[in-house]
Write a structure and sequence with these properties.
heterodimer, A: mainly alpha, B: 41 strands, 18% strand
Chain lengths: 465, 1101
């Protein structure tokens, strides 16, 4: 239903198909919130809760008995714990990138996907945060001793430690992302509020919409706030994973002590984050019938980003090898040869094939626009990026300086339970989100729709947005 | 309302006013009372209140006008009034009263909820004079773990021993102690010790606890009956180093017509004394002087680890291995050449080592003699045809060919021995070389030492081990007596023939059935105890009196360091009690002495005291008391100098050529798949301390395997058999079959497999039961001797798999700057020669942006001499005992979670068939630029102002980042609450000066910060500073070879500073620029070929 005005639009693409009017947007987006949960939702939620239960069992086991139930050993003080942390923080990068950086660059195609991408960020960071907390030997102290609060014992934190930088980086990122997400939600909450027929529902969404009236002043403040927050978030997208990479880069361990880590980690984070967004959106547009909002055009753009960042990551892999050779350091050389051909060769080649080779299929337009292809590729990228962190964490540690301490690290069932269970935590939160929050930014979508369609069949002007 | 107002008016304040106004208190509803109509208060505190004058007193008035003046009387008055008010349907209570009552009830309620305060006091009703809480007491004693008799200092805190250290005054161990000795402390607190006597019914196996009275009442009449009917009593014991105990046994046995004391130790090297008798006429174990020898040839003698007196020999061997005080260009090192059928600690430290088959030891020795006597016609024996005849057939070329060596090896060695005659030493014959020719081997060694004029110099027959030792022959005689039913009573003391012998082969159990009364005196219900009528718990040696006579003229005392923990009784007291109750030995010391302590003292008075002060000298008993006190305090007494003279020369004994007839004719062994060698593993000995978790978890110095024994298979044989480490194989010898995991051990001869004895115990406790495989059934008995080695065996793969709990999987240094080992020639040329010339592995001067740490007082540092470290692992146990390092168990070791703060890394270089070995103690390096310190987010690991890298357990949250970032991987994480594995009495072994760590936190070597603290406190009390040598850290203290030196680096005169300035000093992974506080000293090998640079193919994990 392209109209002549489309050609005048800032973005040449058609962002919403199906000839939707503004009211249709409201109806479509609010439908999942207002209808009784579908059976499919319950099935998904049940699976997620089951995984969450496994997570709880694993976590309870090692919090009560000790970290020894995990596979950690003497050279490998970190294993799946930090692998999962970096993985989930990485996942969390796409949301803010889409909502902040693409916003600043006026990439209007972001509107259909930014809400769910941001939600994914929030939940991914929540999931990620559980790992550094629970990986400590005494989480009951770590939960507050890692914060510099004044206390009578004159105890202070170590500002030289990258782990402390993590605390600030991730918590700042989480706070800003949460506020950004919430601010973006306010006009949509108001829409839901106005549509609510149930008293309790109305009360809750009234509270959430913080008195939004849709007045010009509201909009003025909203737009300004949103812009400021986007500006604040943008450096965070780069800083968080840069700082997470410092956990490794500032250490002395060969394979960790690498200056390429910050850009490499950021690229990898965007790569994995976009892959996760694709995975989720492909499911969501199917389940909630959002095909007119999350179009193949959107997904194709995402796939282009995946391919680009995948190649950046591939470049980083190659560069690491080159530098290891070029440095002349026998430790570095050994570490990288060991990475590719040592006992963990399988992890390394899983990572390389998933992250570098498989996304190359997106050179083909048909593949970029094929739902099954992109779904499979995005899953592989997620697996590959998990292994990338595993390879970095484990292969560097299991054989470091003194050969006398070398030891193969084998995750136990608790490791796998914790890892698998973290997906349960993430998906349970995400499913609650799709059930209760508008998953597409209605107000923003309306802003990128063709103006002549903005009146409904009755010709009334929508109150908000 | 009026009532309400009235009540309002009765707040304390109001009442006080009223009281002040009216001087009395019994006023009712508002009517005034004249002063004359004084109504005494209903309730009064003192009788004065009943007098109107009291109330009129202005002082009293003023005082009572105070707001907070306590007036219980008034309060009660008020309550009365309120009662009246309530009667008039008026409820209520004054606000202040309400608050008072509430406050009190709250306080009481909260008191009731609070935990009753726990008062912990040290339960001394009358504090012993010498015990000050928090201050350790040291007692000199003698180690009772084995029969060597090293001197001990026992550190006790609040009346319990917590650490054993060698007695520095003792001439044998000179302050050092082996791993078994260190760990014997834990045996004292073993929760599975027998706590009271046991009475067993042998036929049914029913056991019940008994009292000592019951036991004595049951046994004494039997003994009496046996004595009266001229029955026979046998005491079977392990080797006893105590003369007085031996005398007590003799006196106990004297009333019986047929009685005998059989002393027998399964791993004892009786061939040595037997051969000495043959060769020199007296059955002694001579004193070997490794410090006088420049060339040492060990033919299967593991003298650095298990042979005779390993601590003493390690120290004396290391004297000629130190380079620090020599001029490099003329540096001298003794040379150690080893021929052995296993890779032992001694072999690992040898400059030249040759793997041989069991039985080849004799060929090596005789071919050397052949070369010297027959071919080179050296020495006075060259003219004696009988000597040449005895050596017939042992030509070195032939032997070398058969043994697969270069043919020049033996010839050159013979030449070299001749060159070093009088300054060389040939030793041989550990458990693993006890083949059927073990006696001949010793005779051959005696011959060599006599030819080489070592007799009287490096072999000293005058300062021999003076104690006569038993033999297997005596045991087998006992066995045949038992079988014939002629033994009425068997008393077994510290001997376990039901385990540590091929008992099935010998028919020991059956023989035992013919003994009517079997009494085992042991610390636990062991395998022997299970076959006895009575199992009587003995004191641990730290609870008992005793003495030792380890060398001629050398005595040491053993004293109790704590009251017996359980209802145990000393073996000696048991015998003494029985003898006295039965009325035996009235004329003997046994009858005169009240108890064992008195017996011991009297014995000393009669013997040692006389020896010291001359026979017949009329000293008063008071002076004996002084002598006794002084000896007890010193722990050791030398009647004659331990070393005859500085040159060490004593008169050489003449070699009896007649002993040479013992040599077998030269023969080539029959082809077999492999020969089995049984060996003694350090720590485990004959399995006596198999329930000691410290020893079980002490990695074997060679294989690094803990908790199990295994079959050592050389790489060539392993390939031929198609087995790998952890494969379970079936070891078959005749009817004997056993399943055992394989460990592929570099340096093993391709025709030899070996396994350690002392494992696979069946009744020792839950730590040691079924740990490993019992190797004793493979011991053979031939000619009244036990044969441990040379048995042909077959090996079959089972397809099963058993994960051995090793602590090190990778054995090559990968050519990293970890080890520096060079040859003596390289050292003479340039003492600072380094293996690592790659510029990327060397740290040139590095500019720093940061200011360095400032050390205003002390700066602690350590130097470790790789040339001296033998890898024995005593330091690991010393550290474990000192620093409360927990034991983690086999499964945790398998996943590399052992907690040892100091470990011994072992690297191989050269060929896997016969590698060069180097041991490297690795512990926290206390780096100047410590990578762990920067990464801890909560500042739990920090640098202190004396150079220590300190770990704050309380603060640690356990991120393990420090562990990851440590290039030396010396940090240890508490994956579980390992301390919980210390049960019951074991908790008494903790050192109260060191925190016991909980789970979830990181720990590591502290440089024994508690000892530093203690030394500084003592120095401060004396108004001084700590001087070099004022204290030693635990690992340094116990090191037999003094490989570890600790001290203040800020003091340029300290030993550690001097060593750090030595050209040999290097730091591990210097290129990482961590700047460790520990320097290692290059290992210098006394071999002509250039040392390997560590590029060997290691066994990969």
């Amino acid at each position: 239903m392209a109209t002549p005005s489309d050609s005048l639009h800032f973005t040449p693409d058609v962002l919403v198909t199906g000839g939707k009017a503004f009211k249709d947007v409201d109806d479509d987006v609010c439908h999942p919130l207002e209808s009784f949960p579908m059976r499919r939702w319950w099935v998904c939620f049940g699976v997620a809760c089951f995984a969450l239960l496994i997570w709880l069992i694993a976590v309870t086991a090692f919090v009560t008995q000790g970290q020894g139930v995990l596979g950690l050993n003497q050279p490998s003080g970190w294993g799946t714990d930090i692998t999962n942390f970096v993985f989930w923080v990485g996942i969390g990068h796409a949301g803010t990138l889409i909502s902040a950086i693409l916003f600043l660059f006026r990439q209007k195609w972001r509107t259909a996907i930014n809400r769910s991408a941001e939600a994914m960020t929030i939940f991914a960071v929540i999931t990620a945060l559980t790992f550094p907390l629970l990986h400590t030997g005494r989480p009951w102290y770590a939960a507050f001793w890692l914060f510099p609060y004044p206390n009578q014992r004159h105890l202070w934190v170590n500002f030289r430690s990258p782990l402390l930088w993590d605390v600030f980086a991730v918590s700042t990122y989480f706070t800003i992302s949460l506020v950004f997400w919430y601010v973006g939600l306010i006009p949509d909450f108001a829409t839901v509020r106005d549509r609510a027929k149930n008293k309790i529902r109305k009360a809750i969404y009234t509270l959430l919409s913080m008195g939004w009236r849709g007045s010009n002043k509201n909009w003025l403040h909203y737009e300004t706030t949103y812009l400021i927050l986007a500006g604040l978030s943008t450096p965070l997208v780069l800083s968080v994973h840069t700082i997470v990479s410092f956990d490794f880069a500032t250490s002395v361990i060969p394979g960790w002590h690498t200056t390429i880590f910050p850009p490499y980690f950021v690229a990898g984070a965007i790569f994995s984050g976009f892959a996760m967004v694709v995975t989720l959106l492909v499911i969501m547009r199917e389940v909630f019938n959002f095909k007119n909002y999350i179009t193949l055009g959107h997904l194709e753009k995402m796939n282009k980003v995946i391919m680009a960042t995948g190649m950046m990551v591939g470049y980083a892999y190659a560069c690491e090898f080159f530098i290891a050779w070029y440095s002349g350091s026998p430790f570095e050389r050994f570490t990288f040869i060991n990475r590719a051909f040592g006992p963990y060769w399988w992890a390394y080649w899983t990572m390389t094939s998933c992250n570098v080779i498989i996304p190359q299929i997106f050179w083909f337009r048909a593949a970029r626009r094929s739902i099954p292809v992109m779904f499979v590729v995005s899953l592989f990228v997620n697996i590959g990026m998990w292994f990338e962190r595993y390879v970095i964490v484990v292969t560097s540690l299991h054989r470091d300086f003194l050969p006398s301490s070398w030891k193969y690290y084998i995750p136990t069932w608790y490791d796998w339970g914790w890892t698998f269970g973290s997906f349960g935590l993430f998906f349970a939160l995400f499913l609650l989100f799709v059930r209760f929050f508008p998953t597409i930014a209605m107000s923003e979508v309306k802003g990128v729709m063709a103006q002549e369609n903005n009146h409904g069949p009755s010709g009334e002007v929508p109150a908000h947005g | 309302m009026p009532q309400l107002n009235a009540i309002r008016a009765t707040t304390k304040f109001e009442v006080k006013r009223e009281g002040m106004d009216k001087h009395q208190h019994s006023e009712s509803e508002g009517n005034q009372k004249a002063e004359t109509t004084f109504v005494p208060p209903r309730h009064w505190i003192g009788p004065e209140e009943l007098d109107a004058r009291y109330w009129n007193d202005p002082k009293i008035q003023e005082k009572r006008a105070q707001e907070f003046y306590e007036k219980p009387v008034e309060w009660l008055e008020k309550m009365d009034r309120l009662d009246q008010a309530s009667q008039s349907s008026q409820q209520g209570i004054a606000r202040r009263e309400f608050l008072t009552v509430m406050g009190a009830s709250m306080a009481m309620a909260s008191f009731a909820c609070a935990r009753r305060p726990v008062h912990k006091i040290i339960p001394y009703v009358i504090k012993p004079e010498e015990v000050t809480p928090g201050v350790p007491n040291w007692y000199a004693s003698t180690c009772g773990e084995c029969s060597v008799g090293c001197g001990l200092l026992v550190k006790t805190r609040e009346g319990r021993p917590i650490k054993l250290e060698g007695n520095p005054e003792h001439p044998m161990n000179q302050g050092a102690l082996c791993s078994s000795g260190q760990a014997s402390l834990l045996n004292l607190y073993d929760p599975e010790r027998l706590v009271s006597p046991l009475n067993r019914i042998r036929s049914s196996g029913i056991r019940k606890e008994a009292t000592w009275e019951d036991v004595d009442a049951a046994i004494v009449p039997q003994l009496k009956a046996i004595a009266s009917r001229k029955g026979s009593v046998r005491v079977l014991s392990g080797a006893i180093s105590s003369d007085s105990t031996r005398r007590l046994i003799q006196e106990f046995l004297s009333p019986f017509a047929h009685s005998k004391h059989v002393e027998f130790e399964p791993l004892d090297l009786e061939e040595i004394s037997d051969s000495q008798e043959l060769s020199y006429g007296a059955a002694v174990v001579p004193q070997y002087r490794f410090d006088q020898a420049d060339l040492i040839v060990s033919v299967g003698a593991d003298f650095l680890e298990t042979w005779i007196s390993p601590v003493e020999y390690s120290r004396s061997w290391s004297k000629n291995r130190t380079l620090s005080e020599q001029k490099a260009s003329h540096a001298k090192l003794s040379k150690l050449v080893c021929f052995e059928s296993i890779l032992s600690v001694t072999g690992a430290n040898a400059d030249e080592r040759y793997p041989i088959r069991p039985g080849d030891e004799l060929k090596v020795v005789l071919s050397l003699a052949y070369e010297l006597i027959v071919l080179l016609k050296r020495s006075s024996y060259a003219n004696q045809p009988s000597v040449a005849a005895a050596l017939e057939g042992y030509a070195p070329e032939k032997v070398a060919l058969e043994l697969g060596m270069d043919k020049t090896v033996l010839k050159n060695l013979a030449e070299e021995l001749w060159e070093y005659r009088g300054r060389s030493l040939v030793v041989g014959g550990s458990v693993h070389s006890k083949t059927q020719h073990a006696l001949a081997l010793q005779v051959g060694i005696n011959l060599l030492n006599s030819i080489l004029e070592n007799e009287g110099v490096t072999v000293d027959g005058t300062l021999n081990i003076g104690v006569p030792r038993g033999s297997f022959a005596a045991f087998s005689q006992l066995l045949s007596e038992m079988k014939s039913g002629s033994v009425d009573v068997l008393i077994v003391y510290r001997s376990n023939p039901a385990y540590a012998l091929p008992h099935a082969q010998l028919g020991f159990e059956d023989a035992l059935k013919k003994v009517p009364l079997v009494v085992t005196i042991s610390d636990r219900e062991d395998e022997m105890g299970r076959l006895s009528d009575y199992v009587l718990p003995d004191h641990h040696y730290l609870e008992n009196w005793g003495d030792a006579h380890p060398r001629k003229g050398l005595y040491s005392l053993q004293q109790p360091t704590l009251a017996p923990i359980h209802s145990t009784r000393a073996f000696q007291d048991t015998l003494l009690n029985w003898a006295k109750s039965a009325g035996f030995g009235a004329s003997q010391l046994l009858g005169r002495a009240q108890d064992w302590h008195e017996f011991l003292k009297s014995h000393w008075k009669e013997t040692v005291y006389r020896e010291v002060h001359g026979i017949g000298s009329s000293r008063s008993s008071a002076s004996f008391e002084q002598f006794w006190e002084a000896t007890l305090r010193a722990g050791v007494l030398m009647v004659q100098p331990f070393r005859a003279s500085p040159s060490g020369k004593v008169s050489a004994r003449a070699f009896k050529v007649s002993s040479l007839t013992k040599f077998p004719k030269y023969s080539v062994p029959s082809e077999s798949e492999a020969d089995l060698v049984l060996y003694e593993m350090s720590g485990m000995q004959d399995g006596r301390s198999a329930n000691n978790a410290w020893l079980q978890e002490l990695p074997d110095p060679i294989s690094s395997v803990t908790w199990d024994n295994f079959l050592n298979v050389g790489p060539v044989l392993a390939q031929r058999l198609g087995v790998k480490t952890d494969d379970v194989v079936e070891l078959i010898s005749g009817d004997l079959k056993v399943h055992i995991p394989v460990y592929v051990q570099a340096g093993m001869h391709p025709h030899v497999v070996s396994m350690a004895v002392g494992y696979g115990r069946r009744s020792v406790g839950k730590v040691g039961n079924e740990a490993g495989v019992d190797a004793f059934p493979f011991v053979e008995v031939k000619d009244n001797r036990l044969i441990f080695s040379g048995k042909p065996v077959k090996i079959r793969k089972t397809g099963k798999f058993y994960r051995l709990a090793a602590t090190q999987w990778h054995t090559a240094t990968e050519n990293r700057p970890i080890i520096n080992d060079i040859s003596i020639a390289q050292y003479r040329k340039n003492p600072a020669t380094a293996n690592h010339v790659d510029p990327h592995l060397r740290l040139e001067s590095v500019p720093s942006l940061w200011t360095k740490h400032e050390y205003k007082t002390y700066r602690w540092g350590m130097a470790i001499d790789l040339n001296a470290c033998t890898g024995c692992g005593a330091c690991m146990i010393a550290c474990q005992a000192e620093n409360n390092v927990p034991v983690v168990g086999r499964d945790q070791v398998r996943v590399s979670r052992n907690m040892h703060w100091i470990r011994i890394d072992r690297y191989y270089s050269g060929s896997a068939e016969n590698p060069d070995v180097v041991f490297q103690p690795m512990l926290c390096q206390h780096c100047e630029n410590a990578p762990c310190e920067t990464v801890c987010p909560v500042l739990a690991t920090v640098h202190d102002d004396e150079g220590l890298n300190v770990q704050v357990y309380n603060r640690c949250v356990g991120t393990r980042y420090c562990q990851n970032n440590c290039p030396y991987k010396v940090r240890r994480f508490n994956f579980f609450d390992h301390w919980k594995s210390y049960e019951g009495t074991m908790n008494m072994a903790w050192n109260p000066d060191v925190t016991v760590r909980t789970r979830g936190i990181m720990e590591k070597c502290t440089f024994c910060v508690q000892r530093i603290r203690d030394a500084k406190d003592k120095a401060k009390d004396a108004g001084e500073t700590v001087r070099d040598g004022d204290f030693q850290v635990a690992c340094q203290q116990t090191c037999a070879t003094q490989a570890i030196v600790f001290g203040d680096v800020n003091d340029p005169k300290s030993r550690v500073s001097k060593l750090m300035a030595d050209p040999r000093a290097y730091r591990v992974l210097e290129v990482v620029n961590t700047q460790p506080a520990i320097s290692y000293m290059t290992k210098v090998r006394n071999k002509q070929a250039a040392a390997h640079s560590g590029t060997g193919e290691g066994v990969h994990e």
